[in-house]
Amino acid sequence: MASILRSRIWPLVEYRREILTLSDGGEVALDWAEKDCSATSPIVIILPGLTGGSQAEYIKCLVSAARKIGMRCVIFNNRGLGGIKLKTPRTYCASNCDDLTEVIEHVRKLHSHIPLGATGISLGGLILGNYLAQQGPTAKTKLKACLIISVPWNVFAATKSTEENYFNLMLNKHLASNLRRKIQQHTTDIGHFNIDIDVLLKSQTIREFDSHFTAKHFGYKNVDEYYRDATLHDKLHLIEVPTLCLSAADDPFQPLQAIPLNEIRKSKTVAAVVTSRGGHIGFLEGFWPIKEEQYIGKFFLQFFESIFTKGFD
Predict the structure, then answer these.
(1) Which residues contact 148 (CB under 8 A, 6 or more apart)?
(2) Which of 280, 78, 62 has its CA nearest to residue 179?
(3) Distance between CA atoms of 42 and 121, rounded to whole angstroms?
(4) In the chain, which stretches have pLDDT less than 70?
(5) I need a surface site. Which of 78, 113, 280, 306 has the fewest CB within 10 A?
(6) Which of 95, 122, 203, 211 is an active site residue?
């Protein structure tokens, strides 16, 4: 519902596209939203969800909010997304942060004296969270603060939840269909991925897709090993960058009981806001929520405006 409503509010955003060649020869598209911004405006790197890109409605919502205070955004489109073809037989996953590390280093090199933050949504939140946990104190030298939205904290609980009732399962199958279609497209572009494409195309759920493709593609023994490495709820003690998380109690990708509230209470760097409603990247507001100012945008704007103007005590 949020996707449908928001798609009627914002037209396509005009970005300045930068193609970044990575160390292994792969390419990612960085879309810069910097209209009416100055050379000294702070920057937020935004990581979209599972198959999302810079024109996703929730991304446009955040970009619209950022423009109100002249804050620049750069959307990091994962390999093979954002309308560009794969250059190497490699995609992306929730646990691998190599590409994000290179993107952050690139942006830091271009704007070494500009405050830099990051926002990850859903799968993008897993990638960002795992980067923060893996990099520890190093990440603190790169990023001033981070915002994570609708992250599936416990990937095991998330996949189980999306298979438990009709509505959730339909959403799960829709996303699995998008993933299958992307691999079919990339197979046409660069050839095979050393997988059984016929078996992969029978994947009806995200877990089946990850079992047949993602886990094998990134060298995991099985999908459970991949999910253990990707999950974030038990890594909060490793995060040193100030990080705020927005979750909803009715998110089909993250049951309320699986949100690591006790771990968050113990953390000095990670805080969370859990709303009673909001779904997965929904967070609509008002009786008739077809308006430009929405909760998710206001949350994003207020957090980074405070970070970049006041900082932390």
Answers:
(1) 119, 120, 121, 125, 128, 129, 243, 244, 245, 246
(2) 78
(3) 20
(4) 8, 10, 189-192, 287-292, 311-313
(5) 113
(6) 122
Backbone angles phi, psi at 148, to 5 degrees: -120, 125
Which residues, other chains included, contact 214 with Cβ-Cβ below 8 Å and sequence gap of 6+? 91, 93, 223, 226
How much is the pLDDT for 195?
78
Q: Is 280 assigned a catalytic role? A: yes
Write out the E strands in the chain: 16-21, 27-33, 43-47, 72-77, 116-121, 145-149, 243-248, 270-275
User: Is this prediction's pTM over 0.90?
Assistant: yes
Closest CA to 147 of 127, 128, 123: 128
122 annotated active-site = yes
Q: Which residues lie closer than 8 Å to 152 by C-beta, 6 or more apart?
A: 122, 123, 125, 126, 158, 253, 254
What pLDDT, on the 0 to 100 scale, is given for residue 190?
60
**CA 216 to mean position of chain CA atoms:** 22
8 Å CB contact between 248 and 274: yes
Q: Which pair of tokens denotes residue 7?
A: 């798609």
Q: Bridge-partner residues for 17, per DSSP?
A: 31
pLDDT of residue 292: 61
pLDDT of residue 192: 66
- Give me 272's structure tokens: 């969370």
Give 72's strand partners.
43
- Model pLDDT, residue 311: 64
The answer to whether 237 is a known catalytic residue is: no
In which residue are the tokens 């308006």 written? 291
